[in-house]
Design goal:
- By secondary structure, this protein is an alpha/beta fold.
- It folds into three domains: about 5-70, Winged helix-like DNA-binding domain superfamily/Winged helix DNA-binding domain (Arc Repressor Mutant, subunit A), CATH 1.10.10.10; about 75-190 and about 375-390, ATPase, nucleotide binding domain (Nucleotidyltransferase, domain 5, 2-Layer Sandwich); about 200-370, Nucleotidyltransferase, domain 5 (2-Layer Sandwich), CATH 3.30.420.40.
- The protein is about 45% helix and about 20% strand.
- It has 14 helices and 15 strands.
- The strands form four sheets. Strands 6-5-4-7-10 form a five-stranded mixed sheet.
- Strand 5 (about 85-90) and strand 6 form a beta hairpin.
- Helix 6 packs across helix 14 (about 375-390), helix 8 packs across helix 9 and helix 8 runs antiparallel to helix 11 (about 300-325).
- The longest helix is centred in the C-terminal third of the chain and has 25 residues, at about 300-325.
- The protein binds zinc ion.
- Zinc ion binds near residues 244, 248 and 254.
- Keywords: Kinase, Transferase.
- It holds the Pfam family HTH_24.
- Belongs to the ROK (NagC/XylR) family.
- One of its GO terms (molecular function) is kinase activity.
Length: about 400
């Protein structure tokens, strides 16, 4: 059984998600006695979380006053990828006020990358976006100890193991911070403002440089004992397959991921099986998963086959997860989501064929609605939840 959430948290979240609400409506929505609500509102106005917002339209009798989140609340959201950094500063309702995107290399190490994050936030401050931050949420592309606020043995992030990310951000900006895995923040974002808005049990599959899965069970992210739940990229799908970056053989992401597709594309271009890729390689000198997507949409048979093969392997893993967790939706996101409908069709066909009919009777497999903004949206949700929890 879940412990009832404290009143201030429910109240602040409701204002975050609904905007301006009257005192009378709040009492109805939260189903609490009016005197208790009014006392709590007074306290939160005094503490600077809530502001008065004028009079509500009359419902008959005395008019109720409106309240909203303090318009000066500011949250910073950071999404670190293997090759990019996204930073957004939002208001209390999580509407972005400033956004920055840059290419970067996570292997530069935590000092370089977090220094750049701090510079971007300092720029936002200098531009008048905020005076002070109320909380920061950050996602990193590897396993995280959510409790300690540190990455743990992240395979693609040399130098980041146990680096005190949360502590550094808290010290630099004088506000609480929360660190999570990049796939979890995307799942949280998609549930807050995307396609999984009204869904309590779903899987969010990120296909990018690697493959990971965010798991929502009963309305909560499931992170596992050590923070690496959902690391499905390292499930073995072919015992005779290629070596993976993790040291094992035949992992899903060694066969299908951004990195694996780029490698297969190179082989196809040089081996003469794909004229479209050969042409692109000659023009650019290098190939990425995006080239495979574009050539496939032009009808290149080899590229279509590469995407189908990948979709079949991923679908096989997802069919197992569907039997295990019985989710009510699967959301596909990440940089390779632009492989689009060929990929989606293959995943659907395998999942529907291999899972039990009861589990797939009503199981949408859909693309992320928020796309590249899923991560920062989720990081902002986590930041706001943290700030609100501390409003005691
Ligand atoms: Zn692996």
């Amino acid at each position: 059984m879940r412990i009832a959430e404290p009143l201030h948290l429910r109240l602040l979240r409701l204002l975050r998600d609904q905007g301006t609400v009257s005192r009378a409506e709040l009492a109805d929505r939260l189903e609490i006695p009016r005197p208790r609500l009014l006392a709590e509102l007074d306290r939160l106005v005094g503490a600077g979380y809530i502001a008065e917002a004028g009079m509500a339209a009359s419902r008959g009798g005395r008019r109720s006053t409106l309240v909203e989140l303090n318009p000066n609340l500011r949250f910073a959201a950071v999404d670190l990828g293997a090759s990019s950094v996204d930073v957004e500063v939002s208001n209390g309702r999580l509407e972005p006020i400033a956004a920055y995107t840059e290419s970067t290399d996570i292997r530069s190490g935590p000092k370089v990358i977090l220094h750049r994050v701090n510079e971007l936030l300092a720029k936002a401050k200098a531009d008048g976006v905020y005076e002070r931050l109320d909380a920061i949420g950050i996602g990193v592309p590897g396993p995280v100890s959510f409790r300690d606020g540190v990455p743990v043995s992240p395979p693609i992030m040399p130098g980041w193991d146990r680096f005190p990310v949360r502590e550094l951000l808290t010290r630099e900006h004088g506000c609480p911070a929360v660190v999570d895995n990049d796939v979890n923040i995307m799942a949280i974002g998609e549930r807050h403002g995307g396609v999984a808005h009204s869904v309590d049990d779903f899987l969010f599959v990120k296909i990018g440089t690697g493959i990971g899965c965010g798991i929502y069970l009963s309305g909560e992210v499931y992170r596992g004992t050590d923070g690496c739940a959902g690391d499905i990229g390292h499930i073995q799908v072919d015992s005779h397959g290629p070596m993976c970056s993790c040291g094992n053989v035949g992992c899903l992401e060694a066969l299908f991921s951004g990195a694996a597709l780029a490698k297969d594309a190179g082989l196809a271009a040089r081996g003469g099986t794909s004229p479209a890729l050969a042409e692109r390689l000659a023009a650019k000198g290098t190939l990425t998963a995006r080239d495979v997507a574009e050539a496939a949409s032009e009808g290149d048979v080899t590229c279509i086959r590469l995407i189908r093969d990948g979709g079949r392997r991923l679908g096989g893993v997802l069919a197992g997860l569907v039997s295990f967790a019985n989710p009510s939706m699967i959301v596909i996101g990440g940089g390779l989501a632009h492989l689009g409908h060929i990929l989606l069709a293959e995943i659907r066909s395998v999942v529907y064929r291999r899972s039990l009919p009861l589990a797939t009777g009503n199981l949408p497999v859909v693309l992320s609605e928020l796309g590249p903004r899923a991560g920062v949206t989720g990081a902002a949700v986590l930041a706001s939840d943290l700030a609100f929890e501390q409003a005691t």
